[in-house]
Write a structure and sequence with these properties.
The protein is α/β, with parallel strands linked by helices and 607 residues long. It has 19 helices and 26 strands. α3 crosses α4 (126-136) and α4 (126-136) crosses α5. The longest helix is centred in the last third of the chain and has 23 residues, at 426-448. The protein is globular, with a radius of gyration of 25 Å. It starts with a strand and ends in an 18-residue tail after the last helix. Bound molecules: 5-amino-5-deoxy-1-O-phosphono-D-mannitol (M6R).
């Protein structure tokens, strides 16, 4: 949530900041701004709205200078308007701040600073930080930032410009992501790598409570006691093109089209001589025997991947699994101990609720294995074991390819655990591995067949409410299909277990109600057909997702989108793609901003 960027070097700062913000707009896009040190004064340009509006403003009256900070906002405190936009500047005009996170004790600090004569012009928590640093500034900006962050409670990634420092600026982080880009005669800060990738591949990944002093030639890192910290350079091994649209109209479509590749990248390198080898995961057969329970904890789409994870781990490894949304888990005093394994799933590796759930689990002694997409992210660094999903950068707010790779990782884990525990035999193990390796080809077929979904969407995009019903793994899939539709098309939608519908919700089905039914579980086809008949009898229009060989469904559903005849057990990795495409085309038909849906941001780094 919120993207921050900073530059110092010999080039004009404004275009570099704007360019960086463009790459971070997925993190928030209700307002944006820059602050640049222009002839000894901090000049701020900011406004409500998308980045194009800021660009127009900057082009009319461009601040000139080669040191600056920028911000793209997802509002938490105070509505999106010009005044609440970042950067915020202290009353003296000496300090400018951009911030991602939430200052939890801002009211207390505000009261104190107001009594000291500071005037507040915005409703944000961030403005407090600008005044607080100003209050503590007595000629040493690093010390002022350190003193301030030691008084702040909450989460932050900060970029701080000081009028007295024409050739340096400061940054700091806690619980919100921040990296430093190391250039040649220039240096950068950013919330995420794509913002600086055009200029450098060498980065420092900052740890909590680290403070950085950047000049054009040097980057010094300190801890919150002011002691120097030695950092390791992290080399980014992907290129700018993977974070660009590459000719696609939307990132979301590009990312769905990448699904075959990223599933292959996630699965194939982990199969060696017919065996699953899970990178550096050091969980032995002996460890597995001692595991009492597995908890899978995540948010949103990653949580839905976890629901599939529960089914498959329990089915294969026969270890009891609980799956929980991270924001609930961390506050419910969960019954976990050192006998339990917690599997954390996160694309960004920075989701604050998930990160705090991880910390809660470790505090209680559990071992934490995370499935993460972003290398070096907070969740990856704090976990005992990490299994990376190789989905590459995911820019569209709606997660697609990351989900397919999260499922792939969960299948690998389930198979590996089950085999090590002796709960499945070699033949079954090898058979499922072969099926997993074939998944990319099956997704390619689904993508090639997308016209039928586009046509259906063009006829039904005016639907007011859509139900997704499924049984077993198809129920887990329905949850994800429903979320995807809601978040990008703004159509109300609910996911129900097929058998549960008649316990209440079927009352909502009337003439013309759209019902989407994944029917990929062979053992549950008959039951689903009954459910389809029940809703059809009440006037529903049914779109089914079924295997090619399933001729029964064609007789009852209005339209059937087929997927290849994959094994029911691994069907979710293939069958989710038509649901993602359905959400995409519905949103497109409605004229929605597919990649940047309203009220959302890609990475949720505030509670
Ligand atoms: O980065 P994470 O996987 O931790 O993010 C979790 C959710 O915020 C995320 O999946 C969200 O639900 C997506 N917008 C769904 O498309």
């Amino acid at each position: 949530m919120c993207g921050i960027v900073g530059y110092i070097g010999s080039r004009d700062a404004a275009p570099i900041l704007l360019n960086g913000l463009k790459k971070l707009e997925y993190r928030g896009y209700d307002s944006a701004g820059v602050a640049i040190l222009d002839n000894g004064n901090i000049k701020v340009v900011k406004c409500k709205g998308r980045l194009e509006k800021l660009e127009e403003k900057v082009n009319c009256d461009a601040p000139v200078g080669n040191i600056g900070i920028g911000h793209t906002r997802w509002a938490t405190h105070g509505e999106p308007n010009d005044l609440n936009s970042h950067p915020h500047i202290s009353s003296s005009g000496k300090i400018a701040v951009v911030h991602n996170g939430i200052i939890e004790n801002y009211l207390e600090l505000k009261e104190f600073l107001a009594a000291e004569g500071y005037e507040f012009v915005s409703d944000t928590d961030t403005e407090v930080v600008a005044h607080l640093i100003d209050y503590h500034y007595h000629g040493d900006i690093v010390q002022a930032v350190i003193t301030s962050i030691n008084e702040i409670e909450g989460s932050y990634a900060l970029g701080v410009l000081c009028r007295d420092y024409p050739d340096k600026f400061v940054a700091a982080r806690k619980d919100s992501p921040l990296i430093v880009g190391l250039g040649n005669g220039e240096n950068f800060i950013a919330s995420d790598i794509p913002a600086i990738l055009e200029y450098t591949r060498d980065v420092y990944i900052l740890e909590d409570k680290e403070i950085v002093l950047l000049s054009d030639k040097e980057v010094k890192v300190f801890n919150n006691h002011g002691l120097a910290v030695q950092k390791k350079v992290f080399k980014v091994n992907w290129d700018v093109a993977s974070a660009e649209k590459a000719g696609y109209e939307h990132f979301m479509m590009k990312e769905m089209c990448e699904e075959p590749k990223v599933v292959r990248d996630t699965v194939n390198p982990r199969i060696k001589d017919g065996n699953i080898v899970l990178d550096n995961i050091r969980i032995t057969a002996e460890d597995l025997k001692n595991i009492r329970k597995i908890f899978i904890v995540a948010c949103g789409t990653a949580y839905h991947a976890g629901v599939v994870g529960k089914y498959i781990i329990e089915k294969l490894a026969r270890i009891p699994v609980e799956v929980d949304v991270a924001s609930e888990f961390r506050y419910r005093d969960p019954l976990i101990s050192d006998k339990d394994l917690v599997i954390i799933i996160s694309q960004s590796g920075e989701t604050i609720d998930t990160l705090f759930a991880l910390r809660e689990s470790k505090k209680k002694g559990a071992r934490v294995l995370s499935i993460v997409n972003v290398v070096g992210s907070s969740i990856a660094r704090e976990s005992d074991d990490v299994l990376y999903t190789w989905a590459g950068p995911e820019i569209a707010v709606a997660s697609t390819k990351a989900y397919n790779t999260q499922l792939s990782a969960l299948y690998l884990i389930a198979l590996d655990f089950a085999y090590k525990l002796g709960r499945i035999d070699r033949d079954y193990y090898s058979k499922v591995i072969e099926e997993l390796k074939a998944v990319p080809r099956e997704i390619e077929k689904v993508l090639a067949n997308r016209d039928i979904i586009q046509k259906f969407a063009s006829q039904h995009y005016n639907a007011k409410s859509i139900f997704f019903i499924g049984r077993g793994l198809d129920y887990a899939l329905s949850m994800e299909g429903s979320l995807k539709l809601k978040e990008i098309s703004y159509i109300h939608s609910e996911a129900y277990a097929g058998g549960e519908l008649k316990h209440g919700t079927i009352a909502l089905i009337e003439e013309g109600t759209l019902v989407v039914c994944p029917v990929t579980q062979d053992s549950l086809v008959e039951k689903m057909i009954s459910n389809i008949r029940e809703v059809k009898a009440r006037g529903a229009v049914v779109l089914a997702i079924a295997k090619e060989s399933n001729k029964q469904v064609c007789k009852v559903a209005d339209v059937v989108v087929t997927i290849p005849d994959v094994d029911s057990f691994i069907a979710p990795i293939v069958a989710v793609t038509p649901l993602q495409l359905f959400a995409y085309y519905m949103a497109l038909q409605k004229g929605c901003d597919v990649d940047k849906p309203r009220n959302l941001a890609k990475s949720v780094t505030v509670e």
